[in-house]
């Protein structure tokens, strides 16, 4: 009897110990299991479900740990004895043939300067400037380019073109949308611009100073890094941006004189160009604009004599493309309904209602959205500045911006 009771005591102690062990085990098991929802090291990772074990990076949010890379400019230049030549602007083949005779950099068409690092638009802007400009460079390290712009459902195509066309030049894309929508977030979750998502920072614009808010999260931002911002339909010239990364002493802010395309790259507005913003350094933005990034694209700044800066592009060599109403007709109709504009001459429109067939007529006949301005035809093969490179190289994806499908003449012309 005594022994049994002792055993009972012992057994209950054992049971208690077992229970504790069991609880401890469960605790550790729960800790060790990878938790898919918690961000690790502040960066949002998506664990792939397959067995390959590769981590797939997604776009960043403000919770991410964003590091801007430091890149030496050395790799973009080639040293021919005493002349340093910009690789992508130099006719390397001809220089190798002339080896030992001529050590001057031999520039490719469209490139200028001693080291062939000045693209055409910049070369012309420098020549046209009243005050002489002494550009210096190349720098030891590239400036980083941070490109901030808004994306909504009306500007999705142009955002896609921008990111893909400038993806190797831009170091960080900051894409934002109003905090009342999550259209862009949905797109990013569905792999929008997947190839460059590691360079995309997604933020919601809650109305407070957007750049001031984001700036404190960019831990290794430098005063001479470049901030670029544009309106939703602007596509800045890629070569001009590359130049800004490598050289010093250019006047600020940088403005762009865009080629004014309408409905696609096949129509041009008779005004031909339109000036838009804007790029400057981090320190210029702080000192001259009090970190208010909207001033970079504001019409008041662009036309102000105080901020002369430098305008890239002229009537023959454009600083990029302004693609006005570059969308499908249904999307244009929706856009016009959402944003009443005074450009449209409503008296000319039956029942005061714009519909798909009205827009299709305009596209077919080359008439601007105001219903009266006649557009000029652009020619794909005769024109070096017809469309951005990425669009030309992906004509299957952006055929509707390259070919006027509503005009039978144009359609059979290709
Ligand atoms: C570099 O150029 C100098 C003259 O400018 C010449 O004497 C020298 O041989 C060249 N060096 C090489 C490695 O070709
Ligand atoms: C030079 O051209 C190559 C090939 O087109 C491209 O991958 C690279 O990014 C360019 N480099 C610069 C600095 O633009
Ligand atoms: C920034 O500038 C814009 C345009 O001038 C102005 O409307 C806005 O109030 C400014 N924002 C801040 C935070 O100062
Ligand atoms: C911008 O300002 C210029 C000069 O003040 C004016 O001609 C132009 O129409 C304005 N553009 C827009 C889009 O408001």
What does this 3D model show about the protein?
This protein is an alpha/beta fold and about 425 residues long. The chain has 3 domains: about 75-120, no CATH class; about 145-325, Alpha-Beta Complex (Spore Coat Polysaccharide Biosynthesis Protein SpsA, Chain A); about 330-410, no CATH class. Helix content is about 30%, strand content about 20%. The strands form 4 sheets. Strands 7, 8, 9, 10, 11, 12, 13, 14, 15 and 16 form a 10-stranded mixed beta sheet that branches. Strand 3 (about 75-80) and strand 4 form a beta hairpin. One 2-acetamido-2-deoxy-beta-D-glucopyranose binds near residues 81, 100 and 103. Keywords: Membrane, Transmembrane, Transmembrane helix.
Residue stretches low in confidence (pLDDT < 50, at least 5 long) are 33-55
Total domain units: 3
Bin the strand percentage.
15-25%
CATH architecture of the largest domain: Alpha-Beta Complex
Instruction: Please state the overall shape, judged from the principal axes of the Cα atoms.
Output: globular
CATH topology of the largest domain: Spore Coat Polysaccharide Biosynthesis Protein SpsA, Chain A
